[in-house]
Specification:
By secondary structure, this protein is mainly alpha-helical. It contains nine helices and no strands. It has helices at residues 2-23, 34-60, 66-85, 94-111, 115-122, 129-135, 142-151, 153-164, 166-182. The longest helix is centred in the N-terminal third of the chain and has 27 residues, at 34-60. The chain is elongated, with a radius of gyration of 21 Å.
């Protein structure tokens, strides 16, 4: 038993040392072979699809189903693993990984944990400008989009609390801030 425990500790320390060493590599100095470059380009294609999903989900998340949530979750896991593996190739940076992580977190929450509330809010869309803006994916300028998002915070807070309960606003609030930062506001 002691030998097994010692072996496990040894393996953990080796893998920790490896991870620590890999994290210290400067992606700017990484030289990628042609296979790594092809893999990185494939990652970028996956990220493009997820970014398009992120854009479409803004105004359509109430229509996404459980199977969409599962698909988004799997695509996020695959793309994030791919990006992390290929940081430094094809101009993939840690910032790309961080941005996709945030987008995935937001999409997974909207299509998962917030789904029931979205269904309730959908019924209030015609009577509330802030809810309409919450679901709206209209092509407007970034400044207008940021202003609408900021101006609607209080209205959205009270509408979510009224339609879905206080706990939904508490859960959604960090995602509201996350979306605000993703929009570059």
């Amino acid at each position: 038993m002691l030998r097994v425990l010692t072996l496990i500790l040894f393996l953990v320390s080796l893998s920790y040392g490896f991870l620590e060493e890999a994290e210290g590599v400067d992606p700017g100095n990484r030289v990628c072979d042609p296979d790594e470059e092809r893999a990185a380009q494939s990652c970028k294609n996956g990220v493009t699809v997820l970014s398009a999903t992120f854009e479409s989900i803004q105004g359509q998340h109430e229509s996404f189903t459980a199977s969409d949530h599962i698909g988004i979750n799997q695509n996020c896991k695959t793309s994030l693993t791919c990006l992390k593996t290929n940081v430094g190739c094809s101009n993939i940076s840690q910032n790309d990984v961080d941005t996709l992580t945030k987008k995935c977190d937001y999409m997974l929450y909207l299509t998962g944990g917030f789904y029931a509330c979205s269904q309730k809010l959908k019924n209030r869309k015609d009577n509330s400008l802030c809810v309409e803006n919450f679901f709206d994916n209209a092509e407007v300028s970034k400044d207008t989009q940021c202003t609408n998002w900021s101006d609607n915070r209080a209205c959205l807070k009270w509408t979510i609390r009224d339609a879905c309960g206080r706990s939904y606003w508490k859960q959604y609030k960090p995602y509201w801030h996350l979306k605000h930062s993703l929009m570059g506001c």
